[in-house]
Design brief:
The protein has 213 residues and is of the alpha/beta class. The protein contains 7 helices and 7 strands. The protein is 47% helix and 15% strand.
Length: 213
């Protein structure tokens, strides 16, 4: 199941370059895991690496902690309201369809419209790998010139039992790593509206991104 390509990709993702970017997008999380991405997003803003923090507007009821909750916590962590960008979720693939892929389709299309060229992607540590592979999948189809950088969310207690994946998957954060890998492998074979790119393609994206800096 695993290869050197998996190890290379995971290592690069978890220790990506630190650059300036137009914004950071915080991948939607349950309340159990939201502080991971919200803290990291606020850190990026306070460090002067971004001018905006983008979060999903809408899509509540599918495990997502919600826009209002996210804004409240970001302000608590020191990010001013004026720096928070609302990306409206559009149910383009069905009234009850929202997942990491459709979320990032919405985000990449928004980013393209506004002409952002560099974007930090922030997810909980166990969710970062699938989030990045998904983002590359969408960028390849929707916005090939977009440079996506990984800013892994702040670590939380690994042995705590939490809710994930639209609020229906329960386990320790450590257990969720295996669940995430299984999803990646399954979604690379079949996913709607299209499958995820291969692990090799995701790694090649990083090589191409850095070659054109």
């Amino acid at each position: 199941m695993f290869s050197i390509a998996w190890l290379q990709l995971l290592t690069r993702i978890m220790s990506d370059e630190v650059v300036g970017a137009d914004a950071a997008y915080l991948v939607g999380q349950t309340k159990n895991n939201a502080s991971s991405v919200l803290k990291r997003g606020a850190e990026l803003w306070k460090d002067g690496l971004i001018s905006s923090i983008a979060i999903l507007g809408g899509g509540e009821g599918f495990g997502y902690c919600g826009y209002d909750y996210s804004v409240e916590k970001l302000v608590d962590y020191g990010c001013p309201h004026v720096a928070i960008e609302d990306i409206p979720y559009r149910f383009e693939f069905g009234d009850n369809v929202i997942n990491t892929l459709t979320e990032l389709i919405t985000v990449v299309r928004y980013v393209k419209i506004w002409g952002w060229q560099r974007l930090y992607l922030v997810a909980s540590p166990f969710h970062q790998l699938r989030s990045f592979i998904t983002a590359v999948t969408v960028a390849d189809r929707e916005y090939p010139g977009l440079k996506i950088y990984n800013a892994v969310g702040a670590p939380l207690q690994w042995n705590a039992t939490v809710v994930h994946s639209q609020g229906v998957l329960t386990g320790t954060r450590l257990d969720l790593i295996e669940a995430e890998v299984k999803r990646i492998l399954a979604y690379q074979q079949n996913s709607m509206p299209y499958p995820l790119v291969s692990t090799e393609r995701a790694f090649a994206y990083l090589v191409e991104r850095d070659r054109t800096v």
